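FORM 7B: Structural annotation worksheet

SECTION A. Query
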Amino acid sequence: MLDVRSFVALAVIFVCDAQKVNYTIGAWVPGTQENMYATMRPLFEDYLNEQVGSKQNPPIRFHLVAVDYSTDTSSNSMISKGKLDFLCTENYLAFQHGGITLLSQTL
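SECTION B. Predicted structure
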């Protein structure tokens, strides 16, 4: 069975577009935005940039943003406007590729 880091790395590589170098990951966990960044940044920004993004040609970058803490950061709105490439919560990781939505309850 894959550990969380391996699963996330494989999922990200699967959906990466050879022409795109910046990806935005929307995230939510119970509590505050600060709690979300403390919980999610080590995997979804630090690890992905260091262990996945830097090894791609050209290198790719991942940026974590808080979603659903206010109406201004509604994940539904951000997805419909094309502002998110991935969406994760404390229990799920979701992304779309080629019209297929992939969802994992691994996290």
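SECTION C. Observations
The longest strand covers residues 22-28. The chain has three helices and five strands.

SECTION D. Sign-off
Analyst initials: ____
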